[in-house]
Design a protein that fits this description.
Elements: H1 18-23, E1 39-42, E2 45-48, H2 55-61, E3 67-71, E4 77-80, H3 82-90, E5 94-97, E6 100-103, H4 106-117, E7 128-136, E8 139-148, E9 160-165, H5 175-180, H6 186-196, H7 201-208, H8 212-226, H9 231-240
Antiparallel strand pairs: 1-2, 3-4, 3-9, 5-6, 7-8, 8-9
Helix pairs in contact: 6-7, 6-8, 7-8
Length: 245
């Protein structure tokens, strides 16, 4: 018997299921069946759209300053947030071939393929497969970390997730966040935001047109309010916290 209830007619041809398949190409089957993603053109290559991330999950992931890509066991892209799509398009070190994420550097790509092949479903344990960096046009090199997804976490075909981020290219932090979340005054928030943008204490004083002693005084008060002991701890705290309201 053919799928979708289309039985072959005696002495004739079985009716084509092409239309049914095209209709259902982005639906999920019941009882633990997996979704077959719909693909749409995205720039120079097609990428899956809406096959894994829920609408709410996509909204949240699109607010991050790093890319998130989901791969199946063969390295094919299952889903990605908007920042990941931007990175893939703008970085000469990354490319998509036949739906698979790959590196333009042959050595890196060989490492990736070995890592994917050596971490089948039965061997997945949440460990890193590859950690490297790739250069992108007009920005600092992006860091790439590929990790396995434990098999009991997702029953669908997601086997790996990829994080793409630029430690020196993080999205700026708003004055509203610094005031409402950390309780900083406008002057303290301006100092904290300047330091978070990568400026030194001396450069911050110059950009804000205040004295070096004033910046240092604000910085001590910021440490107290944020419950940190150093500038490095402050920047780490701000990096993992919210950036805008």
């Amino acid at each position: 018997m053919a799928k979708n209830g289309n039985a072959a007619r005696p002495g004739g041809r079985a009716p084509s299921a092409t239309k049914d398949r095209s209709k259902d190409s982005h639906q999920r089957t019941g009882n633990g069946g997996r979704a077959v993603p719909r693909t749409v053109p995205r720039g120079p290559f097609p990428l899956p759209q809406g096959s894994v991330f829920t609408p709410l999950g996509r909204i949240i992931l699109d607010r991050l300053d790093r890319g998130v890509v989901l791969l199946d066991a063969r390295g094919r892209i299952v889903d990605a947030n908007s920042h990941a799509l931007h990175v893939i398009r703008s970085c000469g070190g990354l490319r998509v071939r036949a739906g698979r994420l790959s590196f333009t550097d042959p050595e890196l790509d060989e490492q990736l393929q070995r890592g994917l092949a050596g971490n089948g479903t039965s061997h997945r344990g949440g460990r890193a497969v590859l950690a490297t960096r790739v250069r992108c046009r007009g920005s600092e090199p992006y860091r790439v970390v590929i990790r396995t997804v434990p098999p009991d976490v997702d029953e669908r075909r997601v086997a790996f997730f990829v994080l793409l981020y630029a430690p020196n290219g993080l999205r700026g932090i708003s004055l509203e966040v610094l005031g409402q979340v950390y309780g900083l005054t406008p002057a303290q928030a301006a100092v904290a935001r300047s330091l978070f943008a990568g400026r030194s204490v001396e450069q911050t004083a110059g950009s804000l047109e205040v004295s070096l002693n004033t910046v240092r005084t604000h910085l001590k008060q910021i440490f107290t309010k944020c419950e940190v002991n150093s500038q490095a701890e402050l920047l780490q705290l701000l990096a993992v916290g919210p950036r805008e309201i």
